[in-house]
């Protein structure tokens, strides 16, 4: 009499199956509802006033209810140090960018911003020509403020938390680490790019309306730029001699506050008496700058969000997000926040950088490697079970393959629950800060 085989548990559902089942709903509908409800603030503020809190309460309750049943909190804990390191790296990149934005906006003085014409932009010409030829309904759709910077950030947060529902491959902090690291690298590259050559803003009135900066250029610009800015003979002479020769004019000395150890920033930021005593207070006013910043930071963030959705989730919602990226890019050009070249460069730089940082999700590769190793180990048993049509044996062997790809748990339940609660609270605080600080871009 043959010995009965021990029962084996059924393999857990695969994330891919979840994505297929949610192809017509779930996460995609939640993302579309978030953008649509937030857009009601322009169309029906009263309806938006009660729909938005209801939507956010629903999403928060669903997340909190699902969190205790999530099976990969141990993987999230292991990914947390890399995520924190990526966050620190991104904050450093943003600080460097803020200093540089103020520098390129202030170094040439307010008079330069008033007198320098914007560069010719054929993309702007094309959009103006289309406005004359397209139906007004289409033009109105192109002009509509459907989605902004904080929407893309929130869409990514929704994507990361969808790991709780097995909609994307966990850990969610793994893709969040890649997103933050890629954004930080892109911000550093952007800073280097717009520091290399100062371009006039497409909005010549920007500096005068937004900043308090000196009328005259900094001494560096007085010596190395101003004498050779427009005279062809002066430009030719400085090219031939490869040395500055013009004398610096006698301008008013810049205001120099007492910043202690940060006094080296005075020549870079060029503060005025009305900016207050703190260098940090001045940096908070850097905003988007008032010379053209190559490439567009808004479009870059939008592309990273679209790439993350396409790679991790896919489906119709990812296609819709890419259409929103293109809509955002043409709005940046249409409203003259950027030149066309800034948006075009931001799109391909975002795509290339995201492709280059795939190594950050190495835990997924290691999980896959362990599964393949286990599959190779049980290959003969699987063939025999298939030959004997032993469905229970096949399910048990496949379950062993699935479990082999999961890291062993090494954290107590108390640690896991504390980490889960802290992550949810941190994200809610991040959401509030995003709405407060990034709602205007």
TrEMBL record:
Predominant location category: membrane
InterPro entries: Sphingomyelin_synth-like, Sphingomyelin_synth-like_dom
Gene Ontology BP, a term: ceramide biosynthetic process
Keywords of the record: Lipid metabolism, Membrane, Sphingolipid metabolism, Transferase, Transmembrane, Transmembrane helix
Segments forming domain Sphingomyelin synthase-like: 289-356
Subcellular localization: Membrane
A single MF term (Gene Ontology): sphingomyelin synthase activity
Gene Ontology annotations for the cellular component aspect, listed alphabetically: endoplasmic reticulum membrane; Golgi membrane; plasma membrane
The UniProt record lists the keyword Flavoprotein: no
Membrane disposition: Multi-pass membrane protein
TM stretches of this protein: 21-37, 49-71, 83-104, 149-168, 299-325, 345-364, 415-438
Family, as annotated: Belongs to the sphingomyelin synthase family.
PANTHER family documented for this protein: OS02G0543100 PROTEIN, SPHINGOMYELIN SYNTHETASE
This protein's name: Sphingomyelin synthase-like domain-containing protein
Organism: Lolium multiflorum (Italian ryegrass)
Lineage of source species: Eukaryota, Viridiplantae, Streptophyta, Embryophyta, Tracheophyta
């Amino acid at each position: 009499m043959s010995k009965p085989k021990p029962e084996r548990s059924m393999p857990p559902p695969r994330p891919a199956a979840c994505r297929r089942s949610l192809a017509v709903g779930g996460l995609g509908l939640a993302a579309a509802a978030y953008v649509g409800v937030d857009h009601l603030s322009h169309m029906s503020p009263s309806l938006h006033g009660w729909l938005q809190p209801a939507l956010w309460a629903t999403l928060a309750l669903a997340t909190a209810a699902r969190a205790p049943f999530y099976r990969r909190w141990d993987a999230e804990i292991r990914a947390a140090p890399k995520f924190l390191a990526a966050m620190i790296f991104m904050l450093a990149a943003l600080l460097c960018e803020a200093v540089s934005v103020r520098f390129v906006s202030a170094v040439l003085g307010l008079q330069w911003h008033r007198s320098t014409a914007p560069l010719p932009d054929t993309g702007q010409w094309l959009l103006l020509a289309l406005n004359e030829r397209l139906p007004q309904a289409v033009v109105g759709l192109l002009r509509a403020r459907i989605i902004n910077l904080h929407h893309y950030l929130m869409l990514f947060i929704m994507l990361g938390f969808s790991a709780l529902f097995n909609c994307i491959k966990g850990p969610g902090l793994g893709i969040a680490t890649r997103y933050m690291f890629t954004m930080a690298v892109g911000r550093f590259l952007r800073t280097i790019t717009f520091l290399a050559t100062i371009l006039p803003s497409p909005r010549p009135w920007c500096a005068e309306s937004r900043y308090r900066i000196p009328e005259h250029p900094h001494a560096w610009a007085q010596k190395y730029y101003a004498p050779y800015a427009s005279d062809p003979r002066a430009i030719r002479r400085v090219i031939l001699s490869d040395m500055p020769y013009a004398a610096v004019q006698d301008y008013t000395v810049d205001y120099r506050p007492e910043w202690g150890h940060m006094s080296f920033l005075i020549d870079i930021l060029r503060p005025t008496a009305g900016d207050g005593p703190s260098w940090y207070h001045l940096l908070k006013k850097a905003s988007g700058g008032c010379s053209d910043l190559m490439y567009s930071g808004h479009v870059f963030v939008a592309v990273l969000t679209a790439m993350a959705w396409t790679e991790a989730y896919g489906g119709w919602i990812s296609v819709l997000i890419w259409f929103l990226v293109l809509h955002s890019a043409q709005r940046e050009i249409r409203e003259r926040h950027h030149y066309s070249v800034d948006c075009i460069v931001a799109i391909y730089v975002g795509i290339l950088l995201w492709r280059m940082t795939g190594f950050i999700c190495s835990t997924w590769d290691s999980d896959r490697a362990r599964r393949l190793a286990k599959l190779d180990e049980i290959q003969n048993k699987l063939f025999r079970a298939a030959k004997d049509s032993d469905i229970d044996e096949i399910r048990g062997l496949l379950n062993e393959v699935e479990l082999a790809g999961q890291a062993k748990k090494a954290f107590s339940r108390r640690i896991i629950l504390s980490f889960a609660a802290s992550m949810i609270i941190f994200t809610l605080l991040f959401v509030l800060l995003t709405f407060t600080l990034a709602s205007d871009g």
